User: What shape does this take?
Amino acid sequence: MNRFKKIGILFLLTIGTLHAQKDKPLNIVWINADDLGRELACYGEPVVKTPHIDALAKQGVLYTNAYANAPICSASRSSQITGMYPTAVNSLDHRTINMTELPDGIQPITKFFKDAGYFVSNGSGLTMLKGGGKRDYNFTTKVNYDGTDWDQRKEGQPFFAQVQIKYPHRTFSRDKENPVNPDEVRLPACYPDYPLLRADWALYLESVQHCDDIVGKILQKLEDDGLADNTIVFFFGDHGRPHLRDKQFLYEGGLQIPLIIRWPAHLKPNKKDKRLVSLVDVAATSLAISGIKTPYPLHGKVFLGKNKIKRKYVYGFRQRAGDAAENLRSISNGRYKLIWNRTYDRPWMQLTSYKKLQYPAFALYHYLHNKGELKAPYNQFMAETKPEFELFDLKKDPMEFKNLAGDKSCKKIKDKLFQKLSSSLKEYEKNMILEDDVTIAKAKQSSKIYYKKAVQKQKPGLSVDANYEEIVKDWEERLLQ
Ligand SMILES: [Ca+2]
Assistant: This one.
């Protein structure tokens, strides 16, 4: 064989190998941070130190308009793992009491990955995938994972791996190496400036820094395992930040999430993407870019790859959270948001034992309000009832304080959003079983027991019957020393 022929064969062999590598399925990793809002340096948050997540954003695309569709763990996670809205899988009530199987033949997306030959895992970031990760699904259908760590797969097997990070979920953890000074934080404008709230916010940011540490370790593991180049990483929060008017509510702080995607050699690095993305889309997109089809259409929309579609609206869903039974829905086109408070007869600040225990702001608002000292516009949140509709111009009023629902000049947009929301809900809510009074009473009773036990354990010295003034004092002793 002459020299040129040899080189020619070698060239063809090389091309062949490259081609085979290109066609090999890519691995998918979801890094899911519990209760993480967009309070990261790469999203413009001052003071907080998040070098690993910032580096990921530089290597990938940062989504500036990504939203969860339920502002609470279990409902959001049930939606993430099915690619369906939480109402469609009867999973909207937090830790649903009367759990059902997934309806209409709906399956967790893990099944479709497994059927396609993927190793499917769910590991805890805190234990570097040695232990199982948080599930928190509100349905009885089993979600079968093959393991906790991609190391456990067969040689050459592609994987769909979830990494669950318990930070920054409350109870917050101090970061002794990089403490955040409460005097230097930028409190969101939807909260009044009180030392207690600054201290709580600083602790939140320190917990975000713990989250960043773990993200760094997981990305390093991918690198060390030689997998960084053929793995698509999705990093996101399971819903918005764990603060008073945020988590559990359909305001921006409850639904806004960070979303960063690194897809080597496909997505141009260090870019921002302004498109509306819903967290339910991550499932549909992960399957589509892996070439996996589902036997029924998912509610999530594909936003990457050749079959991507533009999403015009994002939806928000809220039902019972602990003792607080609600029925709230929202729709947003990115500029205007309509919230439909179907349970308008009750206050926003009805008792949530979890918030009473964990959120200094819950006690502080009640305490200040009782004294007539909670100022406008913050005191709106203490009203005895809600309006049935709230319409906000997110550009002019990002803190959502000025309700435009009764404004004549906004009638057209309000009607348009309501029409779209109510027609969409006919489809999305058809499998939602509303809890009856007996079930809600059961939830209230168990929340009461939870509060009693937790106070005795976490706050010795504080009476279970302590009033809001006493609870605030207790928080001040804990946080303002
Ligand atoms: Ca959560």
Notes: The chain is about 35% helix and 15% strand. Residues 34-35, 73, 169, 238-239 surround calcium ion (CB under 6 Å).
